[in-house]
Write a structure and sequence with these properties.
- The protein is of the alpha/beta class and about 260 residues long.
- It has two domains: about 130 residues, Periplasmic binding protein-like II (D-Maltodextrin-Binding Protein, domain 2, 3-Layer(aba) Sandwich); about 100 residues, D-Maltodextrin-Binding Protein, domain 2.
- Helices cover about 40% and strands about 25% of the residues.
- The protein contains nine helices and ten strands.
- The strands form two sheets. It has an eight-stranded mixed sheet, sandwiched between helices. A two-stranded antiparallel ribbon has the order 2-3.
- Strand 7, helix 5 and strand 8 form a beta-alpha-beta unit.
- Helix 2 crosses helix 8 and helix 6 packs across helix 7.
- The radius of gyration is 21 Å and the shape is globular.
- The relative contact order is 0.19.
Length: about 260
């Protein structure tokens, strides 16, 4: 009887071990200034935040940089996937498990200075020939939901910066903060770009696939909340505001 109990206990431990030590797939995209590749190195305040969470919960997985469409599909369909930084929308709310917010952003429409393009409403934006978007990105989805048919998607925002600079698109839907950094990385003069329309202000967060264990998500959420409480998040935000001209957290600029 004792041997049978030991055998059953051993089987139980083997069966639950994968759930307790499930390996995560941690994904991000090249999206300045929160998370981006600079000279072959993944950097940004969101990257620092995720790595500190990993340190606190004992997660050692490598962060992988994928095109947004592929990363989003994996987070939507697979088990134990972490994707950051993702725009938090009502449509996405029930599709993922969330931690954050990591930051706020403003989605905007950008034109090249001297183009003469003036946008006072979404209807005005529908009249231009081509608007550069990131394929399957939340901004592209937002415009599609409003009936836009003049969208020209690419797989990397640096391509949109270059296309706008060369006159191959009329508008580009991007965000602030981030416009200056992506222009610099694309070799485009930021001062030649101008915001012509504000689409919305919205949070970005860390998202887990729905098939991720609640216990894993809760460990990450607890670590994130502790980082907010002990000032670690604020230190990271201030560090990056001081590090790059394109301050990722402009709301802190007026605070001591």
């Amino acid at each position: 009887m004792k041997k049978l109990f030991i055998l059953v206990a051993a089987v139980f431990l083997v069966s639950v071990q994968p759930a307790l030590s499930a390996e995560l797939t941690i994904l991000t995209e090249n999206l300045p200034p929160l998370n981006y590749v600079d000279n072959g190195v993944l950097v940004g305040p969101s990257v620092d935040i995720v790595r500190e969470i990993q340190r606190r919960v004992g997660s050692h997985e490598e962060i992988k940089v994928y095109p947004w469409t592929r990363a989003y599909k994996m987070a939507l369909e697979e088990e134990n996937v972490v994707l950051f930084s993702m725009t938090y929308t009502k449509v996405r709310y029930d599709k993922f498990k969330w931690i954050g917010p990591v930051a706020k952003k403003r989605d905007i429409l950008v034109a090249k200075k001297g183009s003469g393009i003036r946008i006072n409403s979404l209807e005005d934006a529908k009249k231009v020939n081509r608007i550069g978007t990131l394929r399957d990105d939340t901004r592209e989805r937002l415009l599609k939901s409003h009936g836009f048919t003049n969208l020209e998607p690419v797989s990397d925002e640096q391509m949109n910066a270059q296309k706008l600079d060369l006159g191959r698109i009329d508008l580009w839907t991007y965000k602030k903060p981030g416009l200056r950094t992506v222009c610099d990385l694309a070799g485009v003069d930021y001062n030649e770009m101008e915001e012509v329309y504000n689409l919305r202000e919205i949070d970005v967060s860390i998202a887990f696939s729905k098939k991720t264990s609640d216990s894993i998500v809760q460990k990450w959420r607890t670590a994130f909340n502790q980082m907010v409480a002990d000032g670690t998040i604020m230190k990271i935000r201030k560090k990056w505001n001081n590090r790059i001209p394109d301050a990722p957290f402009p709301e802190l600029e007026d605070k001591p």
